[in-house]
Amino acid sequence: MIDVQVPQLGESVTEGTITKWLVKEGDVVKKDQPLAEIATDKADSELPAPSGGRIAKLLAKEGDVVPVRTVICQLEEGVTAAAPASEGTAAPHPADPPVSVRAPEPVAPSGGASQGSMGPLASPTARRTALEQGVDLGNVRGSGDRGRITRDDVMRAADAPRNGPQAAPAARPAPAPASRGGDPSALAAMINQGGGFVPADSGGPAPLAPRPGVGFGAFKVPPYRQNAGDQIVPFTRRRRITADHMVYSKLVSPHVVTVAECDLFKADRLRQANKDRYKKEGMSLTMLAFVVTAVARALRENPALNARVLDDAYVVYKDINIGVAVDSPDGLVVPVVRRADELGIRGIVRTVDELATRAKTGKITIDDLSGSTFSVSNPGLKGNLFGGAIIGQPNVGIVRMGEIKKRVVVVESPDGQDQMAIHPVMYMALSYDHRVVDGVAANSFLWRVREILEKAEFEV
Known about the structure:
Helices cover 26% and strands 23% of the residues. It is of the alpha+beta class. The strands form six sheets. A six-stranded mixed sheet has the order 11-20-19-18-14-17. A four-stranded antiparallel sheet has the order 1-8-6-3, with no helix packed on it. Strands 5-4-2-7 form a four-stranded antiparallel sheet, with no helix packed on it. α1 (124-133) runs parallel beside α2 (151-163).
């Protein structure tokens, strides 16, 4: 008998949601045949059979959120015939309907106040249970990581009307009343906790975080009142995950933004001279490839930006793996160009094209999205002047490209005289985590990125 576990589905992924079983008990499967569809906060993937055989038992239901390395299925190896009907080949848990991939929305508060589009931090199972039990997640205190609401918290709240007031989890006592305008010390403690600086077993207070659409301390968000013509758009699973990630990143990382003006005259000339040749080979030679190459080189020379923060230390990565934001049917995803400093322009172009194609066709994998050490964001042709992007955790930096626009610049002629010329110019914004990256290191890095692009000494 083989125990089939939820695999480690990428760096930082600790759990997955079983969105659909593709087999039932008694089915005979071949090696690598998909057994289930599993959704994580990075991507959706299929769980392949580790060997051929018969499905002996399914140990989890559709909709369950299970930690990695959890046994969710048992496979009887070597069996080539399906079990007789008398042995029970019906799909498991017939009373349990399949659960939508999108996490259910929280129930509106009894007082009519909106919980906001994001709602409290809660697992998909907790949200489903809240709907089933009629529990307002806004009134539930979570006992999970960073105050995350679990199914047990919801059931405890559901039992409260019958068994008396809900008892707060022992590990998360209620914070002291906030002073006018919010308790700064409580907010600081919450931010530190999000960054891993308050040990889980410290016994200290774990104050509740400000909730979007709800407020914090003395400040409260006014309730939403629907007007004719308003359109309420429920969060998709991808949008909710992205929103949670962005809020967490802004809380845990003190963002600083610095901007550089880059003259792309030489780089653009090089691109124009070679783009048709690349096109004949089925590849797109874009300015993104030049920027990624320049960033990779600058990271090798300025490794402080190629890092992540730990609890009481930080690590500088050896490999340079650059996440590049691309569009997909489910929204923005950030696949990773691995060891980008070793690829050169042609290798970067080929890799980005392949990743973008997989993203647009829905074939991107968790491995494609895992392990970035730095990120580059390209907002496209309508990207506007420049913008400060939010850092993708657990990175400590991200470069956002601005629009490329022809501008008047001052150039030096061969005889040493200053002249005005019209060149393509782009503003690049670097957002960096000031916990471990100082201004000197950040400015040196971005200055070097600009220098590499302006010299345009690339092999294409």
